Amino acid sequence: MKFGSAIVLMALGAILSFAVQDAIAGFDLTVAGYILMAAGALLFIVSLIQMGVASSANRRISESRTVQDPHTGESIRRDETRDY
Q1: Residue 75 is inside which H or E element, if any?
Q2: How far apart are alpha carbons 2 and 67 in whole angstroms?
Q3: Domain range list for the chain
Q4: Does the pLDDT of residue 56 top 70, yes or no?
């Protein structure tokens, strides 16, 4: 969702900056386009960072098992951590 929003902001900003030749009194469309492109680029970078953090957090699984030996009654605990 954020990637799509970022691309839309950058595309809209590029259109306003480079393709629109109209002028509005007291409002510079070129500067507004540059601002939209910068906001889109910033949103794209933030999305990439969040995706990297979320994917690295979901790649590690920890498991703990406790088994009791039926003959001796001794408990054995086994901890495992796996990366995917």
Answers
A1: strand 75-83
A2: 46
A3: 2-83
A4: no
